[in-house]
Amino acid sequence: MFKRFRRLRMNATLRSLVRETTLSMDDFIYPLFAKSGEGFKKEIGSMPGVFQMSIDEIIKECGSLQDLGINSIILFGIPEVKDSVGSDALCEHGIIASTIKAVKKAYPNMFVVTDLCFCEFTDHGHCGILDIEHESVDNDATLEILAKQALVHAHAGADMIAPSGMMDGMIEALREALDSEGFINLPIMSYSTKFASAYYGPFRDVAESAPSFGDRKTYQMDPANRREAIAESVEDEMQGADILMVKPALAYLDIIRDVRNATSTPLCIYNVSGEYAMLKAAGRAGVIDYERVMMETMIAFKRAGADMIISYHAKEVAEVLRRK
Ligand SMILES: [Zn+2]
């Protein structure tokens, strides 16, 4: 006597009744890259369909995102001037603060998440203040300016801040700073388990954030480490992170599942630029059915344990879901 699994696969309605995982546009956060200027919209060569945009173009984009049912964005900024401490990120008239204000004014119900880091704002491209002697980033000095940056975002009207710099103690420091100025209800989504990954390559083109020397291996995680990956997220949960994250996603599905099983905190994953670029390139080369591979990849993230997905594919996913 054997079990006939195929019995429940015999028609589409039955298959959808027994489907264990689903996708909806409520799951998605769409990344946007803000640059100064007006009427500026430049596509990134390695990431077809992804643009650097001036604030007026971002506002237009937010309109079309909401038409597609996408109500959450995560903002990255490319400042006009970069310096050693990332001053633009600490200024209430800086590119991110200005973008937050403009978006919230035009679309009050657009949920605006802000990436909180310094690599796009420093002339050396590292995620904080340099510790020259050790050719690395000074952890505790960076916590201080991270707290300042968080308050700039909070005062500008951000709905959630997302620190991505992998500094130790960053969640505790940020929670304290936000609470001290009354932002007790502003959530923190931590890039809690972030690997030093080659999959970030194309992002550094769009965010203009490649380090001018060295790499990020003294603060981002070794891709080989599974126990440490879980411990990083559990630590951020204990420090008060409201949402955790695993980044990248596709090569780290095991880590997504591990973190899901280790905590009860909501979990986001970042489907990164290199993952997007690979699918695009394979689709354009005609070697895969792009749309089906994209949807299968998204469902894999959910199945692995993700509650929400940051993805450059979000608009295309919305179009596929709408046709269904
Ligand atoms: Zn960074």
UniProtKB/TrEMBL annotation:
The UniProt entry, under PROSITE patterns, shows: D_ALA_DEHYDRATASE (PS00169)
Involved pathway(s): Porphyrin-containing compound metabolism; protoporphyrin-IX biosynthesis; coproporphyrinogen-III from 5-aminolevulinate: step 1/4
Q: Which NCBIfam families match?
A: PRK09283.1
Q: Where does this protein hold 5-aminolevulinate 2?
A: 273, 312
Tell me the GO BP annotations in alphabetical order.
heme biosynthetic process
The organism's lineage is: Bacteria, Pseudomonadati, Campylobacterota, Epsilonproteobacteria, Campylobacterales
State where Mg(2+) binds: 232
Q: Which organism is it from?
A: Sulfurospirillum multivorans (strain DM 12446 / JCM 15788 / NBRC 109480)
Q: Where is the active site?
A: 194 (schiff-base intermediate with substrate), 247 (schiff-base intermediate with substrate)
Q: Name one GO molecular function term.
A: zinc ion binding
Reactions catalysed: 2 5-aminolevulinate = porphobilinogen + 2 H2O + H(+)
Sorted alphabetically, the keyword list is:
Heme biosynthesis, Lyase, Magnesium, Metal-binding, Porphyrin biosynthesis, Zinc
Q: Which family does it belong to?
A: Belongs to the ALAD family.
Family annotation (CDD domains)? ALAD_PBGS
Q: What is its EC number?
A: 4.2.1.24
Top EC class for this record: lyase
Q: Which SMART domains match?
A: ALAD
Q: What name does UniProt use for this protein?
A: Delta-aminolevulinic acid dehydratase
SUPFAM superfamilies tied to this protein: Aldolase
Q: Where does 5-aminolevulinate 1 bind?
A: 204, 216
Q: Name one Pfam family in it.
A: ALAD
Which positions in this protein are listed as binding Zn(2+)?
117, 119, 127
A GO CC annotation given for this chain: cytosol
Q: Kindly state the subunit structure of this protein.
A: Homooctamer.
